[in-house]
Every structure is written in structure tokens, then in C-alpha cells.
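Lab meeting, action items carried over

1. Structure of the two-component assembly. Owner: GW. Status: complete.
Input record:
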Amino acid sequence: MTPAVLALSLRKEFPLGWGRGRVLAVHGLDLEVKRGEVFGLLGPNGSGKSTVMKMILGLLRPTRGRAEVCGFRAGTLAARRQIGFLPENPYFPGFLTGAELIRYYGKLSGMGGRELEARVDQLLALVRLGGEAGRRCLRTYSKGMLQRAGLAGALVSDPEIIMLDEPTVGVDPAGSREIRDLIRELKERGKTVIFSSHLLEQVEDVADRVVILHRGEKLREGRLDELLTQTGEWQVRVKGLGSDQRRELQTWFRQHGAEVLAEGSPRERLEDYFLRSLPEKERR
Amino acid sequence: MRESWRRIWAVAANTFLEAVRQKVFSVLLIFALVLLGGANYFAEFSFQEQFKFLKDLGYAAISLTGLLVGLLGAAQLIPAEIERRTILTALCRPLRRWEFLAGKYLGLVSLLGVMLGIMGVVFWAILRWKEAQLIGTEGGDAMVAQAIQAEARDPRLWQAFVLILAKLFVVSVLAVFFSTMATSTTFVIAMTLMVYLIGHLQNVAREQWLESGEHVSRATQAFLAAVSLLVPDFSLYNLIDEIVAGNAVHWRATLEVVAYSGAYVGVLLAAAAWLFEGRDL
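Predicted assembly:
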């Protein structure tokens, strides 16, 4: 099966203008994203994440190398039919309603008629903008609502690949959790999700594989469980042990030559604690 | 081809909707108020002078309003989309860049058409209202009443409208052309205004170029040739002034100017699409 995305020696230089030379944004990147996986593009600001995404979308032309989407050359209509995209900090025309935005994107993707109307209703419900919210102008939406509307717009043509550039930036914890849940749901439906983020714990939450970029070059690439598992160490979580038993265990470890690196009560993640503190109906 | 048209139409409808919802039509209200105010001005003069004044004011207001909407609207079409990054969410879809550009231009000219249509109807209604008013005060004599009617119901009104619209389509396509290579609206407006002004002297440059001999330097010749071949001849639209002055202008001449405008718009849109195709976004 052809990969969802294939990049071969992808390079992008931007001219600085007026004979001031060129800046190298992406340096000979090789990348393969398999179908059905959630793939994270990681890296600090300026590492080339957005540039790579734009080259895959055909919005930027590579200076050298090539990219393919489901076997089609990146940027061709056939390639773009396979992709839904949500840019970083997207701006949506405030004069449109949520439903009109999704309808507009649907029409640009060649949809129309009853099929499109049914899809608009379905997507509004999926991103919880159904009913009155979908009929409101986007200028009245909160940041989270806008992001959800943009996500619905990216999904309108039911693409094989969904590309999200920093999808959780500026979104509150509940909204951020919701987006990650949606990414998992898309994966369960067999879709490929490629997303960039510098919020590492969020990437860890949903990604199958990641690539770490730095100044346009690939530093690391691999499955998260392979990259993050520390094979020389072992941990266990138990409950119901008293202080005497804990001391006994520590002694036992030392007697068997093991070094106790950490011990104590585990901490809940702040995000989980925060969401648990909210009233039930606001958690989703 | 049918799919292409659907996508172009979707972009055009969205562009039109954006302009309408951004209160562009309040401009029309101001236009109507200016005309209404002007209609009663100089009431002490003869009816011919009153109509002359009203037509001068009307055509000038329509041209200026159309020019402002066309220029500012077209100048923002692409740079504003890039600045707001809405262009990314549109062009990552199976939409060709030339389709996007054509849709944007179509949306803008539709807006200009509707605006000029509304202004034309308002202008026509005011002329008819002035006719009724003047016949009431001065039209006791049948000859005078007939003369007033002839002034108010001048069919050349629509001829002038067609020419104004054609001129605005050319100004808009110039702004669209410059916007495909610019990121700043100011640059687009400045370049368009510069070509607009040079375009009024295009016929002079063309004559100089055709008549220039050995005594003119190669650089001057190249400049004159560039102006003659690339810049639209805005002096052709001086027919509007002829109509306002009350002179007869044949429909054939009007249609020739319209055909020239159409050809210029086609060529420049194709050039803009070619430039836009290679642009990194």
C-alpha cells in the first residue's frame, strides 16, 4: 500500500530579497507517514514544521526533492483531494456563520446539494456546534469554537489525511482534550492524522509516531513507545502498602543490587485534575 | 469544466457576500443622499442648467464611488487573504489557483455591477422626480414640458453606465494583477493608481512611439513602447464626458470600448493567474 505521505530529500529555501541571500527552512528531509497512523511533527519554533506541511499541501514549492500524497505528486488536485487541513491560528471570515463556513469549504471541495447539507449538519453535531451555534456569525465564536469550526471545515470532504498545524494552541484544556479525542476517533475510523505541536504531553497523548525537527533537519524519528520506553528501568504502582512494608521493600531492592530512583505517591496530571474540577456538563 | 465553474462560483459568491456584509451598501446610501441634496441645489437656474448640474454630479459620484469600491476591493482580494491566512484553507482544497483568482474577480465585478445598477436606478428615479418637480413649476408650456422630459429621460444615461462599468472592470483587473505579486494593499493601490494615471496619457505615448524616429533615444522608445503596449488606454472612456456634455455618442463606439475592455481584462487575468501559480503562500 502506498504511504499516506512520502517526502524524499525535501528542501526549501526562502529568498530574503534584494540580494541578501537565502534562508534554509527545510534541509533534505526524508519522511514516510503510514496510512491510518497519528503522526506528530515536533520541534521548536522555526524548526520547519509548518513549511513541511505547506509543501505537502502544495502551498509551497520545494526548492529540491519531492513529496507525494497517497501516491500523487503533492500539490496536484488528486493529492489535495486526499487532505483536510487546519492551519495554525486560523482566521475565519467573521461574516460567515459556522454552517456557511463548512458549506463554503464543501463547495470548494466539489461538493453540493443534499450530500453537502447532510454533511454540514453531521459535522456541526460532531464538533458540538449544532443548533443555534451553527447559525451564529463566526465573529461571535470563542477561540475554541473557532478551532472546532475549522476542524469541521477540514473534515467536510471526508479526506483520507487530516493535517492539523498546532491544533490546540489557544484552546482551553477542555477544548484541547476534545480535539485529542477527535484525533483518536479519526484514527479509529482509519484516517491518517498528521499534526504539529510543541505541547509535548499532548503529542504523547495521541501520536503513534513522531519526527523531531530542528532548524529544518530531522533529529529523531520513530514510534513513541520505542523512543520513550527506558528499557533499563522498571516501575510498578501498587496501593494498600503501609510504611513498614514500604521500608521492607526498599531494603529488599538494595539487597538485590537495585537502585531506587523514585518513590512516593503518584501525582495526577494537572489536566485531569482541572477537568475533574469542572462541572460535569462543561467537561466536554 | 462544470466542476471548475462550481468552484469559481463558490469563491465569487463568498467574495460578494463578504463585501455585502461589510456594509458596502452604506456607501450607496451616502451616494443617494449626495444626489438628493444636489438635486435641489442651484434651483434658481434654468432647467437645462439644473439637469446639467445633476448629471455632472451624478456621473461623477457614480464613477468615484465605483472607483473607490473597485480599487480598494480588488487591492485587498489577495493580500488580505494572505494576511488572514484564509487563502491557505481555500487553496489546500482541490481548487486551482486560477479558479480562485477568477472567482475573486468575478465576485468583485458582480458587486460593482450590483452597486452601479442600484446607483443607476436611484439616479434615474431622482431625474424623474426632478422632471415632475420642474414640470409642476415651469412646464405650463407644452414645448418646455417636452424639453424637460427629453432632458430627464435621456437614454444615453445607460450608455454612460456601461462605459463606467467597463472602465471599473479594467481598473479592478489592474489591482488584481498587482495583488498577485504583492503582500501589501498600499503597494497595490499605489501601482494601480500610477497605471491609471499613465493610462490617461497612453494615447499620447502611443502617438509619440509610432511617430518617433532616429532622434529619440532607444530607452525613450522602449518606455513609450511599454506604455503603449502594456498600459490600458483610459482616454477611450472619455466618451463618458461626451455623453455628460450632451453630445451624441454612437452605440457602436461604446461597444468597441466594451470589447477593448473585455480583451484587456482577459489578457491581464491570464497574466495574473500565471504569476499567482508560481507564488509561495
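2. GW to write a short summary for the group page. Key points so far: Chain B has a mean pLDDT of 86. The interface with chain A takes residues 3, 6-7, 10-11, 14, 17-18, 21-22, 84-86, 88-96, 278, 280-281 of chain B (CB under 8 Å).
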